Amino acid sequence: MATRANLPTSMIPLEQLTQDAPSRIDSAATIAELDAIEAETVGKRSPVNEARRGLGAIEDPAERGATGKAINDIANELADLISAKRVVLEAGAMERLLQADKVDVTLRGRVPQRGTHHIIQQTMDEIVDIFVGLGYQMVEGPEAETDFYNFTALNFHETHPSRLESDTLYLDYGDVDENILLRTHTSPMQARHMEKHEPPVYIVVPGKVFRSDAIDATHLPVFHQIEGLAVDDNITFADLKGTLEEFARQFFGRGTKVKFIPHYFPFTEPSAEMHAYTQGKWIELLGCGMVNPAVFEHVGYDPAALSGFAFGMGAERMAMVRHGITDLRTMIDPDVRTLEQYR
Fold first, then answer.
1. pLDDT band at 12, cuts 50/70/90?
2. For the segment 30-63, what is each residue's pLDDT rounded down to a tens digit?
3. Are the beta carbons of 225 and 210 closer than 8 angstroms?
4. For residue 8, what pLDDT is reported?
């Protein structure tokens, strides 16, 4: 560093700077602290700049030249010290940043929470898959249905109690000639499909249905059904039993036993309920029967040349039987803790 011997008396503050500045620069812990020291030592208002501005007061050209060189030497040496320290501090800051941002590639990654379909959708998908595997085609129909397809085409008498507003939800559908309602079952697709397709027919129809029921442990105003229809030459009740027995064994297990109990449905004759032995008891699963000839007549099929069977089941009921659920309201509980039990 330049010493007192190199500087005029007016420039003595620089000697003190050359003694103090190196240790201050070396002790700087951060880049911000170093920037402050740089401004104080070689900045615009530093002693170095003050000394440079005083050069004009020196009359002797030789002395002015020697003093200017001494000032520049001090400024350059301080700048070199600051630059070297800056390199050290920047390297340290980068190392700390890398340490804080490092990733251990041997650790297990973040696994997102696995989603799933709702239990009702799971049940419907599995039932449809079973029947598709048996050769059926899945079809869907409208949820807003006409009185004809929902009741008349399925052989419901005009005085049948299910036509009453106490049981069925009718819609204000503008100026139309017949009543429009929210379908009470997925069976209307039997008539709709047969009207547009020649036999043979093998379809399964999943979907949402609506009834004017209060919510309780066994009833919902909105629930889901899966309807099935088979129409071909020489189909018998034995074909119906064999198909539904195979379905029950695939859905509940190969050892599942079933039985058929006579029942009544307007659109099948003869009709039955199928029960399965599960959880130590016989439980009703679904309704079924041979297609009533009146249904064939409504859609233009020849009842003398064709035969068929139909069946219908509730998706919620099938899920309840399989999982041992006793309250239907569980199916509409939005609590994720409830839904996660049926992944």
1. low
2. 888 888 888 888 877 777 777 777 777 777 888 7
3. no
4. 53
Among 3.40.50.300, 3.20.20.390, 3.30.930.10, 3.40.50.150, name the CATH number for the domain at 119-342: 3.30.930.10
**């889901």: which residue's tokens?**
224
pTM, to two decimals: 0.67
Q: What ranges do the domains of the chain cover?
A: 4-101, 119-342
pLDDT at 166 over 60: yes
* Average of per-residue pLDDT across 202-211: 97
282 has which bridge partners? 277
Alpha-carbon distance of 252 to 277, in angstroms, equals: 10
Q: Where does residue 76 fall: left (phi above 0), alpha (psi -120 to 50 degrees), or beta otherwise?
A: alpha
d(CA 202, CA 188) in angstroms, rounded, equals: 15
| pLDDT of res. 13 | 66
Residue 81 identity (one-letter amino acid): L
CA distance 231 to 121: 27
Angle subtended at Cα 211 by Cα 243 and Cα 274, rounded to the nearest 5 degrees:
25
How many other CB atoms sit within 10 Å of the CB of residue 266?
Answer: 17
End-to-end CA distance of the chain: 78
75, containing H or E segment: helix 61-101
**Edge-to-edge strands, sheet with 281-291:** 137-138, 201-210, 222-232, 307-314, 281-291, 268-278, 257-265
For residue 322, is it left (φ>0), alpha (ψ between -120 and 50) or beta?
alpha
Q: Are 226 and 205 in contact (CB under 8 A)?
A: yes
C-alpha dist (Å) from residue 133 to 130, 156, 243, 309, 324: 5, 32, 11, 18, 26
Residues 67-117 have pLDDT tens digits of 778 888 888 888 888 889 889 989 988 888 888 887 777 888 788 877 788
